[in-house]
Amino acid sequence: xxxETHSQYFTLRRERLLAQLxxxxxxxxxxxxxxxxxxxxxxxxxxxxxxxxxSRSVLWVDPRYTLQAREQAQGLEVREAKGILAEEAVRxxxxxxxxxxxxxxxTLTCREFSFLKREGGRELRWVPAGGVVEDLRVVKDAxxxxxxxxxxxxxxxxxxxxxxxxxxxIREGDLAAEIEYRIKRKGAEGLAFDTIVxxxxxxxxxxxxxSAKLLEKSNLVIVDLGAILGGYAADMTRTxxxxxxxxxxxxxxxxxxxxxEQAVAAVRAGKxxxxxxxxxRKVLExxxxxxxxxxxxxxxxxxxIHERPRLGRSDKTRLEDGCVITVEPGVYLEGFGGxxxxxxxxxxAGMSEVLTPAAKDIWFTS
Length: 366
What we know:
Blueprint: H1 2-23, E1 28-31, H2 34-41, E2 49-52, E3 58-61, H3 66-72, E4 77-80, H4 85-95, E5 100-103, H5 110-120, E6 125-128, H6 132-137, H7 142-162, H8 172-185, E7 190-191, E8 196-199, E9 220-225, E10 227-229, E11 232-233, E12 236-242, H9 247-266, H10 273-286, E13 298-300, E14 307-311, E15 324-327, E16 330-333, E17 337-340, E18 343-346, E19 353-354, E20 364-365
Parallel strand pairs: 1-5, 3-4, 5-6, 12-20
Antiparallel strand pairs: 1-2, 2-3, 7-10, 8-9, 9-12, 10-11, 13-14, 15-18, 16-17, 18-19
Helix pairs in contact: 4-5, 7-8, 9-10
């Protein structure tokens, strides 16, 4: 019964896609993006090409993945390709006399598209489909939300475990390695991204890589981590201060924490992505810190760590019930350090739900 329910989610996703293809008068969509192939079929191999169409949907794989695909991609015809996957897919499309087929122009290379045009011949018209699948992925179904929720819970648990180990004398790289070890020991399939641990002046680099630098007393330390479960990612950042904070550190942290809390409180279905960004920036503007906020307020999270929408000034996307986003304002002062607080948040019609429940109120250690 559980397997049937699991398969139904992929069937419903393909049905949503087919409705979009019908509106665009496309006979099918050739899917070459492996993330989108997993979203639509459940197949998680490293090579595959799928054709999603109203009458038949087919997945081509090489012999390494035949058995895996037949088990994972239920509801599709699985074909074992002896040669180039895309070539066999195009031959099949031509045999079925499909004349207007969409392709993923946002991910296909020029060389790959040239190949499709050459192999397709004059009768087959390739139509750029934009990010039609990525648009569908913005709103998560119940199974996706469940996977993200578990990934977030695991991520928060790991941070709570290592929080007491964030102390002077430990290397940034060693702390990152410990976090990643614990994430995998708890059953995660992998890391959503390379763990960020940066301290002191380096904490002013929003995406600094962990180094051999030792954590020192009176240092700000940014820890950004995330696990993957069921193919879905979590994303969380906490800032720690090693010692008793002075007025400047307290001012920075309180401003960022306030901006993050107010932005999270503003998240609900119907709001535009840029509206959430504006809330965070207004808080920092009142504290005269907005010029030190150098990135967007957040982004979508799902099968990829960065998905649509982008919570930035120019993104007018309306948030919908079922979107999962991050809210992560930060302030970065060159030569001093930075502060970022981030949660993964589920958008609902009412109050938003924070999925990364690790504590923020006990962030100073000695």
